[in-house]
Amino acid sequence: DFSKGINGFDKVILRESRGSSAEVYLYGGHVTSWKNDHGEELLFLSSKAAFKPPKAIRGGIPICFPQFGSHGTLDQHGFARNRIWAVENDPPPFPTNTLNKAFVDLILNPSEEDTKIWPHSFEFRLRVALGPGGDLMLTSRIRNTNSDGKPFSFTFAYHTYFSVSDISEVRVEGLETLDYLDNLQNKERFTEQGDALTFESEVDKIYLSTPTKIAIIDHEKKRTFVLRKDGLPDAVVWNPWDKKAKAMADFGDDEYKHMLCVEAAAIEKTITLKPGEEWKGRLELSAVPSSYCSGQ
Ligand code: TA6
């Protein structure tokens, strides 16, 4: 359904037959909520998130495009998360043909402003869908629609904030022994140790050539998030911890204890599209009882 969210921002609510739900704001094409069929919130959204352009919403699943990170002329993580997206085939004021579906198709086309800072034309289609078991699926299709024959290159991430009961009781499986660039050490390259990741201080690492499946285990809740990805070879793991948390106006001082970002991304190798070519990047999230998943 369509409704007015925080600060009157338009949002789409997706419902699935067994009761799971998701919410996506047209601002940023930004998923801000994903609930299981018990109504439990699975994504972290800061209580201090500012729903005010040009600030991106703090939490949920920010879309980082056409750039991950902060280098060159673009804002940190690009501009897709700071723009108002449109509902495909549903120009406002939202008619009803998207109601009661478990998916919505959003579309972002560059504005004049955007083309000034990133001189390319593209079509970015984002499908947000709830699967029958309550899985959350995001599919991005980005097409180069340049009429001047020019290719363009970009980097990308689904900057997912998972809600966890206690960061010191969380393990991540699937990234052990991989190489990573450490954002806290001038992006120098290191190799991860041999067992599951645990967390006791700030972490900001870009893992390279990662598997299609990563598990985030919340010990206290006996819940495992399974992150599956396609077209996204890298994975960023981020927790600001206490000092950085205090320095962020749109993030509560203690909130670092209840979140972990594990971000399906394409960073190390930029993606290049010739005019007419399309790139597809898929993310599928599920939340299962840990007894089922640990070690698999
Ligand atoms: O994904 C990790 C990261 O690049 C961190 O370096 C930190 O900056 C985080 O993203 C949040 O960035 P944001 O621009 O959303 O505040």
TrEMBL record:
<dbReference type="InterPro" id="IPR008183">
    <property type="entry name" value="Aldose_1/G6P_1-epimerase"/>
</dbReference>
<dbReference type="GO" id="GO:0047938">
    <property type="term" value="F:glucose-6-phosphate 1-epimerase activity"/>
</dbReference>
<dbReference type="GO" id="GO:0030246">
    <property type="term" value="F:carbohydrate binding"/>
</dbReference>
<dbReference type="GO" id="GO:0005975">
    <property type="term" value="P:carbohydrate metabolic process"/>
</dbReference>
<protein>
    <recommendedName>
        <fullName>glucose-6-phosphate 1-epimerase</fullName>
        <ecNumber>5.1.3.15</ecNumber>
    </recommendedName>
</protein>
<dbReference type="InterPro" id="IPR011013">
    <property type="entry name" value="Gal_mutarotase_sf_dom"/>
</dbReference>
<dbReference type="Pfam" id="PF01263">
    <property type="entry name" value="Aldose_epim"/>
</dbReference>
<dbReference type="InterPro" id="IPR014718">
    <property type="entry name" value="GH-type_carb-bd"/>
</dbReference>
<dbReference type="GO" id="GO:0005737">
    <property type="term" value="C:cytoplasm"/>
</dbReference>
<dbReference type="InterPro" id="IPR025532">
    <property type="entry name" value="G6P_1-epimerase"/>
</dbReference>
<comment type="similarity">
    <text>Belongs to the glucose-6-phosphate 1-epimerase family.</text>
</comment>
<keyword id="KW-0413">Isomerase</keyword>
